[in-house]
Amino acid sequence: MSVRWFRARIRATLRAMRLRLRASAPPRSRSRLASRESVPEDPEEHAVQFAEEWYDRLEFYARQRLRALGVAEPRIGSFDLDQDFRHAAFHPSQRVGGGSSPGARVNLDSGVLNPKLFSPELGPEITTLWEKSRLRDRIDAVIAHEHHESLGLSHAEAVALAPDTPLPIRDGARRILRAIHEREQGSGRGR
Amino acid sequence: MIHILTMGHLDSSAVLRRQAAVPRPLEMGVVNRLLRELGEIDEQGRPTLGGAPVKISGETVACRWWVGGHCNRVAEEFALRLQKETGCLMADVEHSRIIEPEQLRGLSGQPFATVEARVP
């Protein structure tokens, strides 16, 4: 038994162990970004699925944005009854963009991810504007609207006031809110 | 941003918690008749009111009501008639508000909208 023979034996044993370990390891998935669930055809359902999967990031961002716009801490979020009453600024199972609760509390929901949120009621112009807007502009627009509603204004009053809100929302958000308000004036409808 | 009109024998205190708790189911015979009178059926066979799909859970009926500046007056008319016949409650659950009949115009176009539910 030479030293060379001994080294060759060790190398062979290590190779065999490596192969055995590789065979028993679970197959490595190609992507760690999303599950393999099929994507629903309905954009509303897709928004809910996405929001439920990425709830933690959306919750973090919604909370951060509400704070950045100056919404007081006790007014951020409410109990999400669809998710075991957890207190959250983002409610993934709701589909209306955002909501408000007693105590002037504001929350967002999966509606901000739905490109067809205003379709077909508000027509192709606003639907396209909403679709092409960045998520943070959509979120700012919803926060401004819900902020005014949570303070006791009616929906129509909030639609009228939100474009000129004192909250420091982004220009893109003001564009969305202004387009919605101008369409309301143009159609001559309102509460 | 979107308001959904939910109709049913709702627990009003639960609505303030954004919960659609229903002690007893809605009279589905009345719901179906009113849907035949005011509603339509879309390509997927779902009932609609003013073009918006109606969600019937067996205990409540819900339909898109306010979308931006657009108001679904057909849904309002449905809600007013349903409330008159069954005494049910109307609510905007996502915004924790109870909707009084005076807040709805329906198809008659009468401007009843003088009372707003204010939640402090």
Beta fraction of the residues of chain B? 25-35%
Order of strands across the widest beta sheet of chain A? 3-5-4
The overall pLDDT average of chain A reads 90
Number of strands of chain B: 8
Determine the most extensive contact between two protein chains: A-B, 42 and 27 residues
Q: State the helix count of chain B.
A: 3
Low-confidence stretches of chain B: 112-120
Q: Biggest sheet of chain A, open or closed, and with what strands and sense? A: 3 strands, mixed
First and last CA, distance of chain B: 19 Å
- Based on Cα principal axes, name the global outline of chain A: elongated
**Total DSSP E strands of chain A:** 5
Order of SSEs of chain A: HHHEEEEEHHHH
> How many distinct helices of chain A?
7
How would you sum up the global shape of chain B? globular
- Mean pLDDT of chain B comes to 88
Task: Provide the number of structural domains of chain A.
Answer: 1
Sequence stretches where pLDDT stays below 50 over 5 or more residues of chain A: none
Radius of gyration of chain A: 25 Å
Percent of residues in helices of chain B: 10-25%
Distance between the termini of chain A: 97 Å
